Amino acid sequence: MIRGGIVMVIVAAVAVAILALTGDPGRASMTWLGWRADMTAATAVLLVFLGSLIGTIGWRTLLWILEAPERAARARAENRRRQANEALTRGFLAAAAGDGSEARRLALKAADLAQDQPGLVRVLAAQAAEAAGDLTAAEAAYAAMLGAPDMRLAGLKGLMQLALARGDRDMALKYAEQAYGQTRAARWAWRALLDARLEAADWTAALDLVKSALDRKIVPPVTAERARAALLAALAAQLEHSPERKARDQALDQAVEAAKLQPGFAPGVVMAARLLALDGKIGRAETVIEQAWKTAPHPALWLAYRDLKTNETPRERAARLGALAAENPAHRESRILQVEQALIAGDAAAAREAAKTLDGEPFTARTAGLLARVAYASGQPDEARLWMARGMSAPHEPDWSDLDPEGRAFAYHASDWARLVATFAETGELIHPRFERHERTLSELPELPLSYADSAPFLESEGQEPMLHPAEDHGLAEDEPVDANGPAPRRRNRPPRRLASGRRAAK
């Protein structure tokens, strides 16, 4: 209406302006009911304009009066909708805060106000009942959602969670299977089914589940690839010790595929290399480990690489391990391996030089044992003893915990494999069950035949210059004077000392 009035004013102004500019005011005559009115053309235009404006205002006023009831109804509906939204919002907040009584009160209020939002009302009613501890009412509310196609997944998830809360895992699994069977399946249903397959150590069914989730785009490709690699390694570990040749062949194929999918997944790589070596394919086993070392070095990898060949000299083995370290020279494990290969080759000077590259690394029991071996190989037993003593209280390395006391890598139980699959699939990181449970691992500190030397050079832990080890008791006879210019005094005959950690002779 306002825009129409503006247009009429503009038209009238233009008409009056045209008449004024022509210099001829013009004449207009109007006869109505026997009355006659004579006027100028400009006056006639203004009268027509005023008449039209008055008529328009009158018509709009009449329409406004007639629409008053409808307008009032809309205002009431809007106010009701605002109150309903406020009740729903406050109700969900109360349920999230665990205030069950307030949530249920607001749910009842929302049910009266939000008649056009039944889905939200049902969800609030279910969550309010859960917050209030009324699981029967919550189950009824979730069950009521199953009748609505757009609420079915929400209802199934709620019922599954209630079943898990009361310990009914079978019923929870049925709800998850129903949800996963929907066209628009949810990730939570896939994860619930995957956890059930992993708990049962049913690696084949879990592989099928991962493949179907990838096909339906429930999980991203990288997650599915990591899950497949871990599951293939778990399945290979399960079939590895089967008495049937066919099962062992399947284990080899699955381990090789796992290593190909994820070269950085050390458990699959170590298993693939071991099975390839047992099958006589040493070259392929070396290639598998070398590719893995480029991606993610792990101590179990170089130990497996070391043991691939048993008919080589120490120098040949050291050269082969040095080539492996060169595949990823900047990594900490490669620098440790350079020290190891120098020790294997019997080159103490090279081992000490290589050990200097570990100065900035965190000090652990493993590095303490390595430095003790370097010191002993260099003819420094007191320094080796110092590193051994420091290593007793040093923290352990999670990666080293993957080796059991017999040196077997990734000798996991089915439950450990299940956790490994779930964690590696989601994050791409390894877990270390033996480290978490504080179980014994392959010894990080070596057993060195150390004995005390009264005047052996002593190196402090910080790598300072050598100094003579202070002797606590020289064992001089009380009746023998010390002559600074004469020969060294005679010592008393005493039994040799030994380390407290050394083995005692059997009595």
Please provide a written account of the structure.
The chain is mainly alpha-helical. Among the domains are: 2-66; 219-436, Serine Threonine Protein Phosphatase 5, Tetratricopeptide repeat, CATH 1.25.40. 63% of the residues lie in helices and 3% in strands. The protein has 22 helices and four strands. It has helices at 2-22, 41-66, 68-97, 100-113, 118-132, 135-145, 152-165, 169-180, 187-199, 203-215, 221-239, 245-261, 266-278, 282-295, 299-306, 314-325, 332-345, 348-355, 365-377, 381-393, 414-427, 433-436, and strands spanning 27-32, 35-40, 457-458, 467-468. A two-stranded antiparallel sheet has the order 1-2. Helix 3 runs antiparallel to helix 4 (100-113), helix 6 (135-145) packs antiparallel against helix 7 (152-165) and helix 11 (221-239) runs antiparallel to helix 12 (245-261). The longest helix is centred in the first third of the chain and has 30 residues, at 68-97. The radius of gyration is 43 Å and the shape is elongated. The relative contact order is 0.04.
